[in-house]
Amino acid sequence: MTATRTTSRMRGTSTATRSDGPPAMVVVAHGSRDPRALRTVRALLDRVRELRPALPVHLGHIELNEPLLPDTLAALGGTRAVLVPLLLSRGHHVKRDIPEMAAAAPARTRVAAPLGPHPLLVDALYDRLVEAARPAHGPRPGAVVLAAAGSRDPESRADTGRTARLLAERLGVPVVPAYASAAAPTVPEAVRSLAARGHRHIAVASCFTAPGRFATECAAAAPWIASAPLGTHPAMARLLLHRYDEALGAMVTTAPVLATA
């Protein structure tokens, strides 16, 4: 997937000729009323900093938690930044909210692609399922429901479906995407459908970046095991850096875009 180009005041000399250090990474989280979510996101950013100590890493939220993304961008002033959504598919936040906040900020920005679909995301999903199954000492899952937040945007559902297919290839069992809101089927509906087709040991794979209401509700619908949210899995930190690098490459090779009034 390619990075999304914005029109956020990219002026002056080309970034290819600047030598004042790398553009900042701004990880854009959704925000949650669950305090575990903010702790998890901060710990994930610490992993990113460990992997790339020279990279300035900042956090901004779309809603519900501080710092909010506009405040983070305002604090950066006119510096360069790559915004990496801590979101697992395309949708309204990635396609509208984040670019609009970026365009209104003084920072010269580029918005990276969301984290999914990608093989690194599948690595994290697979490992979380293995972790969940290990204490049960039971068989491998006979089928899996991939539980995601959900969106009315068809591209978001397409991305989740692609992630489900990649996970199915990795596991060798059926994987059905399902949603906590705004799309069908729901997780309980997907579980019932798989059970009606004769599948046993149905697991729920939590396609969520951090604990929260949706992750908790979807896990409660699991008839056998449910994996933990992706959280601070090492593949998630590598995936954030991969999306940053993708967007940075486009930022360097593309001529500056002058914002219009």
From TrEMBL:
The keyword Lyase applies. InterPro entries: CbiX-like, Sirohydro_Cobaltochel/CbiX. GO terms for molecular function: lyase activity; metal ion binding. Keywords: Lyase, Metal-binding. Residues 1-23 are annotated as: Disordered. Residues 1-19 have a biased composition (Low complexity). It comes from the Bacteria. This is Sirohydrochlorin chelatase. The lineage of its organism: Bacteria, Bacillati, Actinomycetota, Actinomycetes, Kitasatosporales.
